[in-house]
Amino acid sequence: MGKTYERIDGRLRTFIGNQPVFFAATAPLAGDGHVNLSPKGRAGTLAVLDDRTLAYLDFGGSHAETIAHLRENGRITLMWCAFDGPPTVVRVHGHGEAVFRDDPRFAGLIGHFDPAADGPALRAVVLVHADRISDSCGFAVPFMDYRGERSLHADYFARKSDEEFSAYCEGKDHVATSIDGLPALPLPLPPRTG
To answer: Which of 27, 58, 65, 84 would suit a FRET pair with 95, their CA atoms being 20 to 30 Å apart?
Structure first.
């Protein structure tokens, strides 16, 4: 039986921290717009800042739908599934914002993450303020074995300078604007403040 919570308490924080992958869902306001659901991984790229606020590092490599939707309306849901242990699903429904590299808050937010998680292709920190926190059974979620992190993304972008990464972003479809034409990542890519 699912429950709702007033805050991300110690048990929920531990559960969230133990999951190697989570999912971020956003959507535009337009009824015919594209809903976006993105898997997020890379160890150390998610932080629980307080009992109602989370943040994760947003890296380049594909589109910028999440950023575009957050800029338009701020709605976001994060979800974690237990692929081992007790069957549990946790969702945080909330409002978020993309804090870009030239924002004065950027450097302070980076300090909440494992320094090893910061790296090439970092576009923004996504802040999520929880409006609703809940769990539910994960009875239909299969058991899956975690074998380790994939290094392909970090390895690929480690070979690019910041200028080359900026040019890469400018050359990709649906980075400056979303699939539905909403403003997404500011280009040229802002320089880092920290």
So the answer is: 84
* CB proximity list for 10: less than 8 A, separation 6 or greater: none
Q: Residue 148: which domain range?
A: 3-171
Domains in the chain, number: 1
Residue 97 lies in a domain: yes
Q: What is the CATH number of the domain that holds 70?
A: 2.30.110.10
pLDDT, tens digit, 9 for 90 and up, residues 90-143: 999 999 999 999 999 999 999 999 998 888 899 999 999 999 999 999 999 999
**Residue 41: pLDDT above 80?**
yes
How far is it, in rounded angstroms, from Cα 129 to Cα 76?
9
Structural domain includes residue 75: yes
pLDDT averaged over every residue in the chain: 94
> DSSP state, 32?
T
Residue type, 189: L
Rounded distance between C-alpha atoms, residue 167 and residue 154, angstroms = 17
